[in-house]
Amino acid sequence: MIAEIIAAGSEMLTPFRQDTNSLYLTAGLNDLGIPVAFKTIVGDSLEHLTSAAQIALSRADIVLFSGGLGPTEDDLTREAVAATLGLKMVRDNTIITMLHKRFAERRIAMPPNNAKQADILNGAEMLPNGNGSAPGQYLVTNFAGKRRIVVLMPGPPKELKPLFVSQVKPRLAAAMPPSFLARRELHMALIPESTVDARTAPIYQRYADVETTILATQGEIQLHFQCAKPTLEEAQARVDAVVEAIEHEMDEDIYSSHGESLEEVVLLMMGLRHLTLAAAESCTGGLLSERLTAIAGSSRYFLGGAVVYSDALKTTFAGVPAEVIEREGPVSDAVARALAEGIRERTGASIGVSITGIAGPGPGTGADVGKPIGLVYLGIADTDGTQVKELRLNGDRERIRWWAAQHALEQLRRQML
User: Fold this and answer.
1) Handedness of CA 333, 335, 338, 342 (dihedral sign)
2) 33 CA to centre of own chain
3) How confident is the model at residue 1 (pLDDT cuts 50, 70, 90)?
4) How many Å apart are CA 335 and CA 356, to the nearest integer?
5) How many beta carbons lie within 10 A of that of residue 358, not counting itself?
6) Long-range CB contact pairs, 90-95, < 8 A, 24+
7) Residues in Cβ contact with 328 at an 8 Å cutoff, skipping those fewer than 6 apart
8) CA 221, CA 194: separation in Å to the nearest integer?
9) Who contacts 223 (Cβ-Cβ below 8 Å, separation ≥6)?
10) Is 17 left (phi over 0), alpha (psi -120 to 50) or beta?
11) N or C: which end of the chain has fewer CB within 10 A?
């Protein structure tokens, strides 16, 4: 059994409004063991909505519509579904009475066009909407000889969410065979997506009943696994089996197997080893520190540090000799080394980390003249000495800063291994 969600509304085809309902509905359907195979956003056009409905009903067992149930001329979901299924609509007098009462309580007359909200698809069950004027509809029907469930819900989230929980979800649960979804995910930092897939595809392809998705985000690759079975134990066993096989293949490249962020893992590893950390950041402007301190309880392991953007503060806060900055340039191996060692000494941390680089938009100037955008030096100092890594990062200023912080976190993790 698969589901499709259709969001109706031209406003969601602009840069100013997002379809958040589909995310909520997906989570609710997954709770019932129903995977969502397709999502569609359609503007306020009867032709386009009807076409989308026809396509959805041809391929999905359950089709959920959100939006387009209002009183205006561009609210066309009812009409599109009726046209697709060849159904007539019946005006429900009970709903008309409820609408008049709703407007009377506000001491205003009901506009005539609100009456269209009482039009119910022939054979559909009306779903009361306690938070708005547009009721939902639940219809079990046939399309091209196949059984289909069609659900119409209002678009405003404050109306859709309670209606889905109280009216739709129980009906779907009763209509579905028992099914449970199990999920796992693996996260890896700073590895190309193609490399991950080349190494893991021969493994996950052996598990045809487990849906595998590869996601590439900023500085990391995520593998998501999902399986539906009649019992949660069966589903979990299958997901765990493919995860264990891939963990064996990727080994230390995997930093998380239960959804933790890279900064969470670094802090956890520091706690297990009774270590503390301090940072001296230049081009990242405190981004590394911000990511670490966003984790609750980070103060036990992250002592703090300094944003040493100017050359003078590199000397004042981290003890970098001025002559080193003048001779080598602030973006250099020598300065990254001195920053890491200096911040560690001044804070008393077990580990000192430094980041200095050229994030753009222009190349280096002054002592760094001729050095390219994206040149970053990362330093890590601990009891075993100091290591400096040179990075050549691509992209705009924001991307370079994020990747520099990501490299710092991954280097810390690898070093603690």
Assistant:
1) negative
2) 20
3) confident
4) 8
5) 24
6) 90/119, 90/120, 90/122, 91/115, 91/118, 91/119, 91/120, 92/118, 92/119, 92/120, 92/126, 93/118, 94/126, 95/120, 95/126, 95/135
7) 334, 335, 367
8) 10
9) 185, 186, 187, 188, 196, 200, 204, 212, 213, 214, 215, 246
10) beta
11) C
The residue among 392, 301, 318, 312 whose CA lies nearest residue 354 is: 318
The total of other beta-carbon atoms located within 10 Å of residue 322's CB is: 11
The one-letter amino acid code at 222 reads Q
Predicted confidence at residue 113, as pLDDT, reads 87
Q: Do 404 and 393 form a contact (C-beta atoms < 8 A)?
A: yes
CA–CA dist 56, 35 (Å, integer): 14
Report the alpha-carbon distance of residue 4 to residue 213 in Å, rounded: 18
CA distance 305 to 280: 6
Q: Is the pLDDT of residue 237 over 90?
A: yes
Q: Is 405 exposed, middle or buried (0-12, 13-18, 19+ CB in 10 A)?
A: buried
Does the model's pTM come out above 0.85? no
The pLDDT assigned to 153 comes to: 98
- The conformational region for residue 274 under phi > 0 = left, psi -120 to 50 = alpha, else beta, is left
